[in-house]
Design a protein that fits this description.
homodimer, alpha+beta, Cyclophilin, 8-stranded antiparallel barrel, 3-stranded antiparallel beta sheet
Chain lengths: ~325, ~325
C-alpha cells in the first residue's frame, strides 16, 4: 500500500498534530497541540463577543464568504485606540472600504483609500464619527501597576521567573529586556513598562510620522516573520484569531510597499462589526487557553523543547512569537 | 490635496523603503534599504546560475507565468542533499509533480504526490534517478574547520565578536548559543558546529521519522514566522530569492497539516531546473550583498536600530531572521 506509507511520510513531515502524537512510539512525549487538545474545559477562558471585531470581505472568486475574526486587547492595553475602533465599528465606518496593501512577509493593511470625485477632481474620504481620541505616544507602553499584580494579570511574570523552561525566551530576546505571556497575550517587559508584541497575526494601527499615533481608521495585520522593530513604535490593538488565511493568501500588491496598484485590485470590505453587533445576529464564541494554567506551562515547555517523535534535537528555547497562545471556537461539551 | 497627504500617510506607514528615506527630515539616518541601495557594485557577490534552482508553476488563473528562484546553499553545507537535488533536476524528476501542501504561517511543500492507477488500483510514484545519496543526520550540523577560517568563510564570526551592534542577536538567541551571518547566509553556532537557520523563505528537505533524513524529492519553503525549532532537525538546502509570492499567496490547504484535500487542488509544477539549464535558454543573474562588507554591517546595525524617520524607539537588537541578506537581480551598470 504505497499510498498509505507515502501518506504517513507526508503527515510525519514537520508534524505538530495530535494525530501524529497518537501514531507516536513515544506516547509519553506528546506534541504541543496534543497537550492543548487534552486540556480540560476548565482551563479555557471565554472571550467576550464584545471584545471581537468581525471583518467580512466580499466573497472570493468562487463566491465563498471570507470572514476574519480579530480579538481586541484587554484593559489596560491600547485602550485609547480600541475605544476609537469601537466607535468606528458602531458607525459602520469601514463598510465599503477596502484592503489596500498586501506586502509579502510583512503586513496586510485596510482602511479608507478615498474616492476620486470626477466632478470636483478631489479625493474625498469618509467622514469620521464624533469623539475619536488622539492617543499620545506614551500609550505604546503601559506601566506595570500594583493593580495588575493584585488582579493577577501579572501573576505569570512573577511565577515564571523561577522557571527557565516556562518561558525560555526570557533574557534571550534581542528586542527588549524580557518577554512573556500574561492574560493570554505576548508582551515585552522593560523598566519603562509593558508593551504588546508584533507576532504573526498581530493587528496594529497605521499612523503617519511621529507625533501622529493613528486614529484606528487604518489597521494592519502581520502576515510574516514577527516585525518586532515595530514594538513600542506603533499601537498593537489585537490579533487575528480566525480567518487570517483570507488575508495572508491575498495577491501581493505590486505598488510601492505592497500597495495595490489601482482601485480595481483592492479587496472590498463588506462590513466590520463588534462581535456582539453582527448584522446576521450570530454571536461568535471563542476561548483561549488560560496562560496562567499548568497546561499552558506544559505547552510552552513543549514548544521550546520538542520531544514529539518527529524531532531529534529539542532547541531548548523558543522566541515569544513561536509560542502562540492557543485560541479556538468554544467547544460545546 | 487630501489624496496626496493621505498617500504620504500610507507610504509612511511601516516604511522601510528608500523612497521614504528620501522624504526624510533626517537624511543622516537612512533606512536599511537606503543603505543597501547606496552600496557600490563592488560590494555585491555574483550568484552562479549553477547554484540556482528555478521552479516554474503552471500559469495562474489569469494566465500569468509563475517562476520561483531558489538559491542553493554553498559548500560545505547540506551538500549531500544538494547533490541529490542537482540529480533530480537534471532528471526532470519534478516536472509534472505539484505543490501539495500550503499551511498558513508555516510551509509550502512540493513533490511527487503519486498517481492513482485505475487499472492496478495502486498508487504509483515516479522512478528516482540512479545514485541518490542517503545523507546521515550528522550532516544537519557542519563542524567549524580551519579551512572555513582560512578561506574567510568565518571571518564574519571572528570580526563581529567585538561588535555587539553588528549582530545584536548574538548571545540573545533562544534557540542556540549564537547566531550570525557568514558567506551570505544565516547560521546558528554551537560547540557541535554550524547549522543553517529556518528563516522566512528557507528551503528544506521533507523527511519521515528519524533516522530518515529525506532524499530531496520532497521540498518545502517557510512562509511564516521562522520555525526555528526545525533547525538541526531537518536539512536546509537553500532559500527563495525571487517569486516567493507565487507560493506564499497560494490558497491554504484544508486537509490535515495544510495538505490540499484532493488532487484537483494541487498546483502543477511545469518544471524545475538548475539555473544554467533552463529550457528557455535564459540565464538568471542574481547577486547578494557581501556579508563581510562594511555596508552589510551598516545595514545590519540599521535593521537592529531603526533610526529612519518613521521610528521613535530603536529596538537595540534584532533576531537573525529579521536581518535578511539583501539579494537582487544583477544590475547592469
Amino acid at each position: 500500500m504505497k499510498k498509505i506509507s507515502a501518506a504517513i511520510s507526508l503527515f510525519a513531515l514537520l508534524s505538530a498534530m495530535p494525530a501524529i502524537a497518537q501514531e507516536a512510539d513515544k506516547p509519553e512525549s506528546p506534541s504541543p497541540n496534543a497537550i492543548v487538545d487534552a486540556a480540560p474545559a476548565s482551563e479555557w477562558v471565554t472571550i467576550s463577543p464584545s471584545d471581537l471585531l468581525v471583518m467580512d470581505l466580499a466573497p472570493d472568486a468562487k463566491g465563498e464568504a471570507r470572514r476574519v475574526v480579530i480579538q481586541l486587547m484587554p484593559e489596560p492595553f491600547s485602550q485609547g485606540w480600541i475605544r476609537n475602533i469601537r466607535k468606528l465599528a458602531a458607525a459602520k465606518f469601514w463598510d465599503g472600504t477596502s484592503i489596500n496593501r498586501v506586502q509579502d512577509n510583512y503586513v496586510v493593511q485596510w482602511g479608507d483609500a478615498g474616492y476620486d470625485n470626477p466632478e470636483s477632481g478631489e479625493t474625498e474620504q469618509k467622514a469620521l464619527p464624533e469623539g475619536l481620541e488622539t492617543v499620545p505616544e506614551s500609550a505604546y507602553i503601559t506601566p506595570m501597576t500594583d493593580d495588575m499584580v493584585t488582579n493577577g494579570i501579572a501573576t505569570h511574570i512573577i511565577d515564571q521567573a523561577s522557571n527557565d523552561d516556562y518561558f525560555p525566551s526570557n533574557g534571550t530576546d534581542p528586542y527588549i529586556n524580557e518577554t512573556s505571556v500574561m492574560a493570554g497575550w505576548p508582551f515585552g517587559f522593560a523598566e519603562e513598562g509593558v508593551s504588546p508584541v508584533h507576532c504573526y497575526g498581530a493587528v496594529g494601527v497605521g499612523r503617519n510620522y511621529s507625533p501622529d499615533t493613528g486614529s484606528g481608521t487604518e489597521l494592519y495585520t502581520v502576515i510574516g516573520h514577527a516585525p518586532r522593530h515595530l514594538d513600542r513604535n506603533i499601537a498593537v490593538v489585537g490579533r487575528v484569531i480566525e480567518g487570517i488565511e483570507h488575508l495572508s493568501s491575498l495577491p501581493r500588491g505590486k505598488g510601492q510597499l505592497g500597495f495595490y496598484a489601482g482601485a480595481s485590485k483592492r479587496v472590498p470590505i463588506t462590513s466590520i462589526r463588534l462581535g456582539d453587533a453582527l448584522g446576521d445576529g450570530s454571536v461568535p464564541a471563542f476561548e483561549y487557553l488560560d496562560t496562567n494554567s499548568d497546561v499552558f506551562a506544559q505547552y510552552a515547555d513543549a514548544r521550546a523543547n520538542r520531544r514529539d517523535p518527529f524531532f531529534i534535537k529539542p532547541a531548548g528555547g523558543a522566541d515569544i512569537c513561536n509560542i502562540p497562545v492557543p485560541v479556538r471556537r468554544t467547544k460545546v461539551e
